[in-house]
User: What shape does this take?
Amino acid sequence: MFTFDYGKYRGILISVALFLLLDASVLLLNFYISFEIADDAVGVNLAGRQRMLSQRMAKTLFVLDSSREDPVAFQKAFDELLLSQSLFDETLNAFIRGGNARGAAQEAVTLDAVSDPKGMTALREAATLWAPYRSAVQTLIQDVQQNNSLAESLPAAVAMARANNIALLGHMNDLTIALEHLAASKATRLRWIQTIGISLAIVNFFIIMFHFVRQLRESDVIIERARKETTEILATVNEGLFLIDKNLRIGEQHSAKLTEVLGQQEFAGKSFQSLLENIISEKDAETARGFIELLFDPKIKEKLIGDLNPLNLVEVNIAQPSGGFLTKYVKFDFARAYQDGEISHVLVTILDITEQVKLEKALSESRKHNEQQLEMLTGLLHTHPTLLHEFIASAYKCYNRVNHILSLPAKNAASVREKASGIFREIHNFKGDAAALKLEYFENAAHAIEDELELLRNKPDLTGNDYLGLAVQLENLISYTQQVETLIKKLSQFALASSNPTAAADPRHVTGSRQTDGWDHLDTFVQSIAQRNGKDVKLVTSGLHDLNLNREHQQQLKEICIQLLRNAVVHGIETPRERELGQKPSQGRIDLRLAKISETDMELTVMDDGQGLDYAAIREKAIASGKWRLDEIESWDNKKLLSLIFNEGFSTAKTITKDAGRGVGMEAVMNQVLALRGKLTVSSRRGHHCRFVITLPLIAAQKDIAA
Assistant: This one.
């Protein structure tokens, strides 16, 4: 039978028992005083709230007095007065007599009666002031609830507020200070108890250490682990090899190739998890850890989890002695190692597959390039030649304007940041033109540039050097545009060589008349956006072909239409389900009308039968932006809120997509209208429609220019 030698361990047992007793005593005192401090903290918070409530009651009484003719503002102030008076009176009584009160989240809080002399004095004086003040407020509340005349009760309550507000605030401040001093004294007492307890615990710890060291000195045995691994194989294999144990520790030996693959570093005894975290992300390293733990589970068959290897292909960057990094691609393989029929280790094999990956990337780049060429050709074949030529010309103008913005000298941080906003407007218009013609590569490239610009606009320490990456993206876009232009010329040559003079002379064979080339693609543009956003939209146009406009003027007008149509589909028209719930046809409608209203002016109207402007969402977005004060925003009327949609970066979209979320489209429309010396008006009815009416100077095409 096992017997325990108490005499041998008597000193240790006594020391541990004293240590536990001391810790338990200190812990109990800590708990007791901590609970008291927590209760005091509740009292301090509620006393602080009393100060705020006294001010809020006075404020609401003044608001009631000034808003008798505004029922909405009057009711809002009256509701706030009811809550403030009730909370103040309830909490004051709880401080005086003890009892329940409501906390910050309206939860029930139990307060003990204040016993501090200074706090009791403050409460008595406050109660004296509060009695007539409370009577006047309750009289006012009763008159309001019974629809009685307020000619006497409201002025009386306001007079009481003026007379007692400052004094009441002072008494509540005295109460708060008294409670804070009480809580501070308890905190000081707690610190002394903790200091003494820790000091005694340290002394006790050294006593325990003395006994342990003496016992360990007599019985301690140094165990040296020796492993039998084949060093000749490790020196000759072409893979990095090592073993890891169940604690994911790397063995004492590894193959010579491991140093070559992962660079010069110490591997023996190192945590495999830390090794992984140095070369892959922390999340991937944790996934690999879980995979290896499965390998140590004998219930799981090794073959079944082989395909789950998360380290099948890893990119590593190895620091070089001369500076810089060497990028490699490696593959990890794992196999179980058995000893006496049990899983003892996992054999890790690391293969350098850099050349293989480079070859695969080269093949992928070649395939991607071919696909881009095919995509380019397909897009060009579906776009009218005249529109395509206009787009290319417009694109080069856009690139020149962007380059001009990039080359402008930046004298201060504001001008550096303004570059991003200016380029954003140009690229956003360019993206709209590309989307209207379904040139997806240009649209996606422009969207990627917008992503980069969004990062730049939000960067706090933006400098001119941050635009270098943007310049590279722009150069790639220019290069692609030049390829498209070259391809267009080649296709034109093929078309000329294979054209039939007889068919060309027949008007029935002429495609893409100048009258229709400028506008017919807008319907395709609307349908494309509607499909992406899960909506059903019908575009009805009128008057677009009736005016023979100057080509540049027509291009600017098309850019405005593209922005307004995108806005109507994304923000205006509801989904079919939402429209059915609102007793509307499932298909939304957008009307686009262009009309000559005088010899010198024309009018562009874009109207949708959607949900109209959501002023609540605009107000909420304005509050979330932090650009304006809350009280300032609450005072704005709908006209002021409407103007926000034309501000830079303002959008009510919840997420950023190809079609919305940048807050650039409506700003671009307003800038173009102002640049053309035009006028823009907006009308909206919630749940029914939104209409944009733009009046612009009429600039007709010269008569000697063919349509």
Remarks:
- Residues 501-516 have pLDDT under 50 and may be disordered.
- Residues 153-219 form the longest helix (67 residues).
